[in-house]
Specification:
- With about 350 residues, the chain is α/β, with parallel strands linked by helices.
- The chain has a domain of about 180 residues: Aldolase class I (TIM Barrel), CATH 3.20.20.
- It has 13 helices and 14 strands.
- The protein has a 6-stranded antiparallel beta sheet with strand order 13-12-1-5-3-14. It has a 6-stranded parallel beta sheet with strand order 7-6-11-10-9-8.
- Strand 10, helix 12 and strand 11 form a beta-alpha-beta unit.
- The longest helix is centred in the middle third of the chain and has 25 residues.
- The two termini are about 25 Å apart.
Length: about 350
């Protein structure tokens, strides 16, 4: 596949009639097929003016505060293009207008990737920032991200990897976990109970099949009162139950602090003080704080992270052929940031 260099190249792109997915492949991204068309028009114009070889310095900055992610993808995108790059580390905090990346080189060598790299950093930083807010609410409590079902599968691994950057202790998306250097986490869904017809039957089989060191966490809100079901499961697993999961739907009021308090008290009375309470279902930082006070031990968070808005990123040319430049309203020249580090590319 040829990299796009001119407007003429666009005419050569053909979509196969049997193409299965609408998402871009890695090859299409790397060859500029996801860029905005006007960057190719710009290169045509600059080429005609004999200016495409101009050496420039570009800086990228966010519109609001947050936590940075997506840097690794951008660096991989730009590798081998004879550029110098400085970047803030993933997981670092930034403020509005902070320079989070600087790129130096011939404009023609990275012009078509402006759209792509800004999108990589904007989306990932939005997800990492949301995850960091959840982490702050959880304190020392564990939380798992399982928001993959809320986004297109092509970006689900990007989203959940960004959640790890933001502080998630685990993710359920298999590829995201592998990209983040951890193993995927997750319990057993309601569908298992609904097909089997009994939570205890599923829990016993789960216990039989799981590795000895696996934390056995069982949903207890499918058929019966949550507390009653939790005690049935705990007795059946005879010391091997790590935790129960509460995911009471909104139609029944969701998981409340009162339910968590009752669950904790009655598990303790039955001698199951070692069984942890894992909560999921429409959680927000505010809900997490109240549930921790009630006795919850861990959380599964999906839509709060997956639905986070991207943090708008802007790329400005700040130096052209050694001269400081800027559009109206901006200050010409480089904007220093002590967090910037030279990247090996």
């Amino acid at each position: 596949m040829k990299q796009l260099d001119t407007m003429h190249d666009i005419k050569e792109i053909k979509i196969a009639p049997d193409r299965l997915m609408h998402s871009a492949t890695h090859e299409e991204i790397i060859n500029g097929h996801t860029t905005d068309v006007y960057f190719l028009r710009t290169l045509d114009i600059l080429g005609e003016l004999d200016l495409a070889e101009s050496e420039v310095v570009a800086e990228i900055f966010p519109r609001k505060a947050g936590m940075l992610a997506g840097v690794n993808e951008v660096i991989n995108l730009l590798k081998g293009r004879n550029l110098e790059i400085w970047a803030v580390d993933e997981g670092e905090r930034f403020e509005p207008k902070d320079t989070v990346m600087r790129i130096k080189g011939k404009y023609k060598d990275f012009a078509i990737f402006e759209t792509t790299l800004l999108g990589m950093m904007a989306s990932a930083s939005g997800w990492a920032t949301a995850s960091s807010i959840i982490k702050e609410a959880c304190g020392d409590k564990f939380f798992l991200c399982f928001g993959a079902r809320h986004v297109h599968p092509a970006v689900a691994p990007v989203m959940e990897r960004a959640a790890i950057v933001g502080g998630a202790g685990g993710v359920s998306c298999i590829l995201a976990a592998k990209l983040g250097g951890i193993e995927p986490s997750g319990t057993v869904p309601h569908s298992a109970m609904l097909v089997a017809g009994d939570t205890v039957k599923v829990a016993e089989t789960y216990n039989k099949l799981a590795a000895p060191d696996h934390n056995r966490i069982v949903l207890v809100d499918t058929f019966k009162d949550e507390v009653e079901e939790a005690i049935r499961v705990a007795k059946a697993l005879d010391g091997k139950l790590s935790g129960i999961r509460l995911d009471t739907p909104s139609e029944r009021g969701g998981v409340t602090p009162g339910l968590v308090k009752e669950m904790r008290a009655k598990l303790d009375l039955e001698g199951f003080n070692y069984v942890k309470i894992f909560v999921s279902g429409g959680l927000t930082p505010e809900k997490i704080k109240t549930l921790i006070e009630a006795g919850a031990d861990a959380f599964g968070v999906g839509s709060y992270i997956s639905a986070a808005s991207p943090i708008d990123m802007t790329m400005d040319l700040k130096v052209v052929n050694g001269k400081s430049v800027a559009k109206r309203g901006r200050i010409p020249g480089l904007v220093e940031n002590s967090k910037l580090k030279k990247v090996e590319v």
